[in-house]
Amino acid sequence: MKVEVHADFACAWCRLGLRRFERAVAAAGGEQPVELVHRPYQLSPDASEEPCSTVELMTRMIGSRDQVDAMFGEMTRLGASEGVEYRFDRTVEVNTLTAHRLMWFAEQKYPAPVRSELANAIYDAHFRDGVNIADRTQLVALAERCGLDGDGVRRFLDSEEGVAEVTGQVAEARRSGITSVPTFVFENGELLRGASTSEEILAALRRAAQ
After folding, report:
1. Are 190 and 172 within 8 A, CB to CB?
2. Of 42, 73, 91, 153, which residue is least crowded by CB atoms under 10 Å?
3. Concatenated DSSP letters for 16-83?
4. Are strands 52-53 and 92-93 parallel, antiparallel or unpaired?
5. Which CATH number fits domain 2-209: 3.40.30.10, 3.90.1150.10, 3.30.420.10, 3.30.2090.10?
């Protein structure tokens, strides 16, 4: 069974959604093999590739540092309860197109376990380690640690390959009505949008398998 997920690496709920999906698949106990296909989405397609502090950016947007700290504190506690580490004090906001291109490259050339490891690595680099995920050198290093060929990744990222495909997929997702992420799309056409629980995802998996 293939399941698609439309997600953005800059979205904290997408990071949590991936963990919940993995937990749902594990809870299914191998009832049916499941392959997760990562589809790109950009919440801020016009974001700069120059990193800026997430906390500072959100404070400017909301106008209250206390409110930002409370919001991130709650997300940090929620993540910790499910084994996801958020370090918003380290996180920097950047344009996610290059990270999505890397994921697109992996989708074309590598098996599902490698792609899963890479997606988790990109999320953790962003939300836990404070890595600039628009930086090609950092992305090559991440890819190599996940078993991708570093030279091949470097050549790919230094080219324009995948730009049209990724931006086209983002545009198509918006045209199809996807406005919130994560959005999981199952083979039976069912969609789960936003902060679905592992239990809700497991139930959707079983409905799709019928």
Report:
1. no
2. 73
3. HHHHHHHHHHHHHTTSS--EEEEEE--S-TT--SS-EEHHHHHHHHHS-HHHHHHHHHHHHHHHHHTT
4. antiparallel
5. 3.40.30.10
Cα(186)–Cα(191) distance, integer angstroms: 6
How many CB atoms within 10 Å of residue 54?
A: 22
pLDDT 10s digits, 113-144: 999 999 999 999 999 999 999 999 999 999 99
pLDDT digits (tens, 9 = 90+) for 144-190: 999 999 999 999 999 999 999 999 999 999 999 999 999 999 999 99
DSSP-derived secondary structure for 114-151? HHHHHHHHHHHHHHTT---TT-HHHHHHHHHHTT--HH
Count CB neighbours of 91 within 10 A. Answer: 23
Beta-carbon contacts of residue 110 (< 8 Å; ≥ 6 apart): 118, 147, 148
Residue 159 falls in which region: left (phi positive, over 0), alpha (psi -120 to 50) or beta:
beta
Give CA–CA dist 160/183, Å, rounded.
27
Residue 23 tokens, joined: 């937990």
CB atoms within 10 A of CB 129: 15
CB 126 within 8 A of CB 10: yes
